[in-house]
Amino acid sequence: MVEVVAACVAEVVDLRRYLAGSQALGRQGLAAFLLGIFEDEAADTAVRTLGAVQMALFISLMTQWLTDPDQAPDASEIVAGLRALTGIIDARE
Fold first, then answer.
1. C-alpha–C-alpha distance, residues 27 and 24, integer Å
2. How high is the pLDDT of residue 31?
3. Is the C-alpha dihedral spanning 89, 49, 60, 36 positive or negative?
4. Burial class (CB in 10 A: 0-12, 13-18, 19+), 42
5. Between 87 and 8, whose confidence is greater?
6. Which tens digits make up the pLDDT trace of 26-78?
7. Among 6, 31, 40, 41, who pairs with 46 as Cys (CB 3.0-4.6 Å)?
8. How many angstroms separate the Cα of 38 from the Cα of each of 41, 42, 44, 45, 90?
9. Using alpha carbons only, how large is the chain's radius of gyration in Å?
10. Pick the residue with more confidence: 54 or 4?
């Protein structure tokens, strides 16, 4: 199913352009929100790192909640997973 949607989006140039622009604005807004600043103050680095990672988390969680809500993680599990991931990354640095 995902492949079909991706193929359709790739074929419809205007839709693809619209979705790409929406994602860029979403990354910028998420980075600004998390940093407590206005969107136009968000540095490109923050948008491409913090904003992009937050958007990836949102999209993944929405997909899980839409496709299998009974097995999707709750807030405490998400926080625990992020803490565990941070610990693994910190241990390797």
1. 5
2. 97
3. positive
4. buried
5. 87
6. 999 999 999 999 999 999 999 999 999 999 999 999 999 999 999 999 999 99
7. 31
8. 5, 7, 13, 15, 30
9. 16
10. 54
Q: Tokens 């980075």 appear where?
A: 31
Contact of 28 with 47, CB cutoff 8 Å? yes
User: Any alpha helices (H) in 1-93, and if so which ranges?
Assistant: 2-11, 13-35, 44-46, 52-67, 75-92
CA distance 44 to 64: 29
55 Ramachandran zone, left/alpha/beta (phi>0; psi -120 to 50): alpha
- For residue 72 the two structure tokens come to 């999707």
